[in-house]
Amino acid sequence: MGERLSHFARSAHVMTREQQVHFLRQVGHQNFKRGHYVLARLAYLKALDILQKFPNRISNKRQISCDLYIDISRTYIEQRLFDDADQYCLKAENLSTQITDKVRLAKCFDCRGRVCRMKNKYEQALLEYYKSLDLKVAILGENHLEVAHSFHRIGNIYLKQAKYNNALSMYEKSKTIKIKLSNYKGYNLDIAHSYHGIGSVYWEQSKYNKALEMYQQCLKLRLETLDDNDLDIASTYHRIGDVYTSQRKYQDAFIMHQKAIKIRSQLLGEDNLEIASSYDGIGTIYWKQDDYRKSLMMYKKSLSLRLKILGDHNLDVANSYRSIGNIYYSQDNYQGALSMYQKSFDITLDILGNNNLHISELYHAIGNVYRKKEQYSQALAMYQKSFAIALEILGPTNLLVASSYCCIGHIYLKKQQYSDALEMHRKSLDIRLQILGLYHLDVANSYRYMGGVKYIQGKYDKALDLYEKSVLIKIHHLGDKHIDIADMYQEIGDIYDGLNNIEAAIGKYEKSIQIAIQVKGNNDLYIARLYRLFGNLYHKWENYDGALLAYQKSLSICMEKLGIHSINVAKVYYCIGNVYYSQDQHYCALPMYQKSLQISLPLTKGDDPDIAEANHKIANIFYLQANYQEALFHFQHALTMKTALNGNVHNDIAALHHQLGDVYRKLDRYNEALSMYEKSLDICLELSQTNTLDVANLYQGIGNIYWQQHRYQQALSKYQNALYCKMQLLGNDHIEVSWIIHRIGDIFYQQTKYSDALSMYQESLQIKISYLGPNDLNVARTYNDIGDVLWRQDKYDEALLMYQQSLQLHIQILGDIDHVDIANCYHGIGHVYYYQRKDNDALDMYQKALTMRLSLLTEQHLDVAESYHYIGHIYSSKCKYDDALSMYRKSLQITIDILGDNNLGVASTYIGIGDICCHLDKYDQALEMYEKSVQITCKLIGSNNVDVAGAYLCIGNVYLCQFKYELALSMYKKSLEIISEIIGNDNLYSANAYHSIANVYRKQSKFQQALTMYQKSFEIRKKLLGDDNLHVASSYHGMANVYFSQGKYNYSTAMYEKSLQLRIKILGYDNMYVAISYHHLGEVFYQQDQFDEALSMYQKSLDTQLALFEGNNLENGRLYRDIGNIYRKRDLLHEALFNYRKSVDIIIQTVGSQHLSLANVYQDIGNVYCKQRKYEDAMQLYQNSLDIASTSLGNHNLFVASCYEGIGDTYSNQDRYQDALDKYQQSLQIRSDILGTTNLDVASCYYRIANVYLKQNRYPDALITLKKSQSIRQHLVGDYHLLTADCYHSIGNVYFAENKFHYALLKYKQSLKIRLEKLSKNHIKICQSYSSIADIYFLQGQYNEAKSLYQKSFKIAWKKLDKHHPTIAMLCHQLSKTFNRQCKYVKANVLRLAFSSQGKVILDKKMMLELTSSSTESDTISQGIV
After folding, report:
1. I need a labelling partner for 869 at 20 to 30 A (CA). Which of 423, 582, 623, 751 fits?
2. Hey, is 639 helix, strand or coil?
3. Using CA atoms, how far apart are residues 535 and 544, in angstroms rounded to an integer?
4. Degrees (nearest 5) of the Cα angle 1390, 1392, 1395?
5. Within 10 A of 245 (CB to CB), how many other CB atoms are there?
6. 773-777 long-range Cβ contacts below 8 angstroms, 24+ apart
7. What's the confidence (pLDDT) of residue 717?
8. How many CB atoms lie within 10 A of CB 1027?
9. Predicted pLDDT at 282
10. Could you tell me which of 1074, 1088, 994 has the C-alpha nearest to residue 1043?
11. Distance between CA 946 and CA 934 in Å, rounded?
């Protein structure tokens, strides 16, 4: 176009405007024809620009404009830019309507039809084309070239819809009109175009000779009319090449495509879409010849051009991806194919939407991939999607629909749904017959596929009939010397083999080989394949010499053509091995099989059936030779391969599992043996081999393995199957039945379904007593198991009775001697005492069991390790951590010596050691132990079991102690997920996980979520264990903790009381759990300033613990700390320090000097020193606390934040406000990072920061910060909470400091209202509220009101505080000032003199109370302020 435009530029000045427009339009047409759509559009737009400058009076201006709009629209259409095309088409349509030019309007409809056609919207395209046709016929008459063009376009649509007769009719109509108009210029080219269309119909119908005739007619006419180098001629060469490709005349096809590419290169250059199309055609030739490397190269060249010219968002690009996908599919690179198909799909979907034939074909292609990958469900889904779209667009009678039916039939065949497969192939055949007629290759294929189904069904006569129909059609099309015919004869030979007609089978094989030799010569791999199949036939009929001769011929060809390293050679060696194996010549068979494997394994993915069978045969040989390790190796490989090939339910797979079980049994690897037997059993059952004693025993054995793997539901199912079989075969009261019932009880026990377990054990016991008599060891052991259930239900007295009954029966039968069963009884009794927290009694029983086991079993025995393990539990419970560690390590060493590092006993001991580390705040070591336990357990029995779930709970506990709440939560949820997957949600394991999750939410101040979790845990525990149970008591305790954190002390007290009463009822008063309940009740009283009651509870807890434990333990240390807190609150600082120091001594004695409990006490002592104004001492204590916390937890954790807060308090008391603010800000940063911004601890930081601002007279900052604190607290605990009341009071202080007394009074009253509702009437905070409100009344001159509130405040302070407390002196002073203002000078002076200069009271109690007592009137005033 550059030259033509240059010519235009040089000549434009001598052309009229009309000539310029005409010239540019001709340039546009030439470029359009050559595929230069952008250049064509530039010419049209230039012409349009010139035309716009024409005067409107020129008569044909609008007609030419309309034509140019249509021309521009066509360029956009060819580039698939449909929106732009529609825009210009609409302009043309509007203009043609204005000028009432119906012919041009018809051309607009043609444009719209073209767009619809390219979008695969064929019905809409037909609608547009028929609208155009009707207009043209009405205006121009039937015999007009434009009418012929419309018929041709309609024919194109019918061709796309596979309505070949309709398409042919339209092309013929078009051709007839053109012939009638033979005197016009370009007649030959239009006739050629019709031949081209007719040829396309024949090509689609596989009528290749007729198609070729039409294309050659087309070529002849075009060559007569056009220059040799014309794109239309290239297009015809291209189509002739496609026909030759379909006819497998690949050399002729290649020549045609080369001619096309030569013309296109000369005219368009190398970078053009037409060239890309030629590369596609050549790529297809290579593909059909199985030359995938060259084919892929051509398709990629085509793709590269299309991407360069069109970008990556174009249908031609999508088609290239699809072609490359076809190559990958042919290479068995299914993942690569899927990737390419998906790329094509994504582009096509984005451009055309979901409902078009391109998408249908892509679904079909993706379905083929899934079918090859044996993912039949996915394949079927894809085929069905393809089918649905094709059905909607093309109707039920269409070749794409037929193809979908065919492929769905293949899927049903693979799934062994033979009737469905036949139905699909029959539907496909019916459509193909209707569209293509009887003699078409696709029809022949349908007959062949149906024959294949019949063959697999063993219906050989019907299969033969269908194959013969197929072969007749193929001979009609391909002649009798075609390789497809050789294939058909070989398959027909297999059918005769099925009919036991060996002579006919051999005849067909010989005919197949004869044709193949004629087509391919003597030395072709195809011939080698036929010889190998012929050898198989001889082998089957025990003609071993004939088989060996055929195999040798096959081997000779393969070796010559491929060399020894070929899969074909490997297959032949395998077949020769089979011949020797069948003759029991194992010494000859083994090297053949080994050669086969040696060659094939490096060359394949191991999914070849012959490789699988070779492994199987080699394994059998080694087994017969007693070489079990080699047998095991090859059986395993055979199993893997055959499972991939045949699925799990197959006789071969059942046999392999059985044989593997035999090998494992020979090797004494019983767990693996049972696993194999289990799989064999499953297959046998599915193959209807049921209800025998052997099957029942296999059920039971498999159940045992599942039980060991903690797969309880599966184990239960197997035991129940075994029980059913044995009851049917042996009756209900047989001893074999009792064993299974007992094992079912074991399952329920592990699932924490203790009531069900008890029922099973009791039923088993009755059968045993009936069958064996009451004095039998099996009866005694069952008593022991019943005891296990009862102590799990917290029925300790009943459990103890069972254990003692078992012990007595054992002694009666065995005598009073050392015996393993008697040791087990002592061990069981120890469990009862352990869970009753009777640690001394438990220790005595465990040690008895240990002593007996040591005497009977020696040190190196797992029962001895178990005893050490549980004695370790006792020492841990008694806080004797060194002794506990010693026991755990003994247990660990024995277990490792016997079983090695990787066993469940070692994993369990690591948990125990981890618990000790956690108690000692050695969190990294604890985590290391727990993670070791998880790794071992996962390795042995997988990640989905209760032991792993339990370990995750332990890891979560560590993170909880480290204040890493999100990590803790993730561990607890992991644990819950595992339990839910294994045994569902209604079990104690799940209840424990919910309880742990609730603990995290409570720590995060997510109180409602915490309550929900505790409630879930509670409901499960109550459902499983009833009301009177320690687990239920624990749930009450957890809910009480939430209410305590929310400041709902009445609710909290009620829950703690419920928990306490249950614990006393079950365990008695002298128990650790009871001590814990007393402790928490004391904390509730402490928070309400009910110090006497709190002290009483703490003392009860302490007394209980002292009675339980020898010497001191960590809990005692914590109790002395809490008692110290009471004295500190009462300002009895010396008493507080005394208790704190006791706490320090005990903690250091029990857990060392680096424990977090010690850090807590150091903070409390620091608080005392602050009150005593010993700031340096306080700072030292805070620093000690900080050092411990940093060492244990690192620098960024909540404990460190708490230390910073304490240091900040010290700085604040020293008036070092900036230092205080820095520490509070550090604390705030840590808490916000860990807890988020909405948390009570974060609110506490804001509260402290605000109080510093208040002291600095930074009132606006104080107010803003207090409101932040208030907002968080209101969000978390509501308006009526003491923390919210504190915020109101502090906000009141700010307003008071700003002399905004009205606002201050309002906030003080809000605070007082909450405090009166939440606290006892003599609480010190109510004293504070009265005093603050009184201060405002005093300043406002309301002296009666002020006096009344000062008196009430003084009354509380006098009762609650030490008589030398500064608050009492301050209130006396304020009252004195108030009396003075009221002119009550005597009272004022007496109160002024009530304290000496040292602050000591010099008046007696009676006088003080008379002076400060409030009248009835004052009571009324004080009540009115709320």
Report:
1. 751
2. helix
3. 9
4. 95
5. 23
6. 775/809, 775/812, 775/813, 776/813, 777/810, 777/813, 777/814, 777/821
7. 87
8. 8
9. 93
10. 1088
11. 11
Task: Using pLDDT thresholds of 50, 70 and 90, give the confidence band for residue 1418.
Answer: very low
Measured at the alpha carbon of residue 636, what is the angle toward residues 630 and 639, in degrees to the nearest 5?
A: 140
Tell which phi-psi region holds residue 1284, choosing left (phi > 0), alpha (psi between -120 and 50) or beta. Answer: alpha
The pLDDT of residue 1415 is above 50: no
Q: What is the DSSP letter of 551?
A: H
Residue 1014, token pair as written in the block = 């505790």
1122 contacts 1083 by C-beta, under 8 angstroms = yes
As a residue count, the chain comes to 1426
Q: Is 861 left (phi over 0), alpha (psi -120 to 50) or beta?
A: beta
**DSSP letters spanning 484-511:** HHHHHHHHHHHHHHHTT-HHHHHHHHHH
Residue 1421: per-residue pLDDT: 34
For the stretch 841-860, what's the b/e string if a residue is b when 16 or more beta carbons lie within 10 angstroms of its beta carbon? bbbbbbebbbebbbebeeee
Q: Is 374 left (phi over 0), alpha (psi -120 to 50) or beta?
A: left
Comparing CA positions, the residue from 1421, 1330, 1342 lying closest to residue 1378 is: 1342
* Whole-number Å distance between alpha carbons of 773 and 779: 8
- Contact (CB, 8 A) for 417 and 389: no
Residues 6+ apart with CB under 8 A from 1339: 1301
pLDDT digits (tens, 9 = 90+) for 1176-1234: 888 898 898 888 888 877 888 888 888 888 888 888 888 899 998 998 899 899 888 88
What confidence tens digit (pLDDT) does each residue in 63-97 have?
899 999 999 999 998 887 888 999 999 999 999 99
Token reading at 391: 């059905």
> Which residue has tokens 């037409």?
274
Separation CA 62–CA 778 (nearest Å): 109
- CB pairs under 8 A, 24+ apart, for 636-641? 636/660, 637/606, 637/612, 638/612, 638/613, 640/606, 641/606, 641/607, 641/608, 641/609, 641/611, 641/612, 641/615
Query: Hunting for tokens 């005694």 — which residue is that?
Result: 780
CB 288 within 8 A of CB 250: yes
State the Cα–Cα distance between residues 448 and 473, nearest whole angstrom: 11
pLDDT at site 1419:
42
**pLDDT at res. 289:** 81
SS3 1059: helix
**Residue 959: both structure tokens together:** 């993170």
Tell the residue number behind the tokens 């009822």, with chain if given.
1065
- DSSP-assigned states of every residue in 1364-1426: T-HHHHHHHHHHHHHHHHTT-HHHHHHHHTSB-TTS-B-S-HHHHHHHHPPPHHHHHHHHHT-
| CA 144 to each of CA 101, 158, 178: distance values in angstroms, whole numbers, following the listed order | 17, 22, 8
Mean pLDDT (whole number) for 487-494:
90
Residue 775 Ramachandran class (φ > 0 left, ψ -120 to 50 alpha, else beta):
beta
- pTM exceeds 0.70 for this model: no
Confidence category of residue 1416, pLDDT binned at 50, 70, 90: very low
H helix runs in 1027-1071, sequence order? 1030-1045, 1049-1067
| Other Cβ atoms within 10 Å of 57 Cβ, number | 6
Q: Taking residues 510-530, what's their average pLDDT?
A: 87
Report residue 1187 as tokens. 């050092």
pLDDT digits (tens, 9 = 90+) for 110-124: 999 999 888 878 889
Query: And the tokens for 489?
Result: 């004869």
Q: Determine the pLDDT at residue 170.
A: 94
Are 344 and 334 in contact, with CB atoms under 8 Å apart? no
Token match 């010596």: residue?
897
Burial of residue 601, with CB atoms counted within 10 A of its CB: 0-12 exposed, 13-18 middle, 19 or more buried:
middle
